[in-house]
Prior knowledge:
The structure holds 2 protein chains of 2 kinds. In chain A, a hairpin with a 4-residue loop joins strand 7 (59-64) and strand 8. Chain A is mainly beta. Chain A has strands at residues 4-7, 10-14, 19-25, 31-37, 43-49, 52-56, 59-64, 69-74, 83-90, 94-96, 100-105. The model of chain A has no long low-confidence stretch (mean pLDDT 95). In chain A, 0% of the residues lie in helices and 60% in strands. Chain B is an all-beta fold. Chain B has strands spanning 4-7, 10-13, 19-25, 31-37, 44-51, 54-57, 64-66, 76-78, 87-94, 102-103, 107-111. In chain B, a hairpin with a 6-residue loop joins strand 4 and strand 5 (44-51). The A-B interface holds A 2, 4, 30-31, 33, 35, 41-45, 48, 86, 88, 90, 93-99 and B 40-45, 58-59, 88, 90, 92, 98-103, 105-106, 108.
Amino acid sequence: KNEVEQSPQNLTAQEGEFITINCSYSVGISALHWLQQHPGGGIVSLFMLSSGKKKHGRLIATINIQEKHSSLHITASHPRDSAVYICAVNTDKLIFGTGTRLQVFP
Amino acid sequence: NAGVTQTPKFQVLKTGQSMTLQCAQDMNHEYMSWYRQDPGMGLRLIHYSVGAGITDQGEVPNGYNVSRSTTEDFPLRLLSAAPSQTSVYFCASSRTRLGAQYFGPGTRLLVL
């Protein structure tokens, strides 16, 4: 079993929809990252959080340390949000999930 | 600032050939890492460095060498390319070892 599991693996949405991507982990962590990988391949760090919630524009990341779970929400989704979203956790190293592929259609 | 740069963007090698993937950053980050990304798998750490002159192995180091002679540069060397090394390679830098990672654009490598 992978130490970091993301769901769903693939997600399609209509423009304007509210989107949730989930990340569950089975190890003790000090922090969790959300990253975005664009269709061209580039990877950008979105959030790093160790408790509570962070918000940047239309993106919101939450984490529940007790439940070992984090969510990434996208409000008012747009086609430019189409990307692979990757969760990673800090243990003594970074452990990456396999990503959630999101496609937003106009 | 250019951030993290990688060259080449794409490379085709024959089995047994050697090559160096270049990585440079201009953010004065002490920590630099090399990852490979394969279909259906998360990013996996190959080698990392905590500062000039200091390198260490990651999860999948076999077949790769690194060096860190300056803060800016962290080249990855494939000693004798194998088809199993076909992958997309990302270099990353960070202010702290497990802090927010700044990734390069990636190098797509095909080994025939």
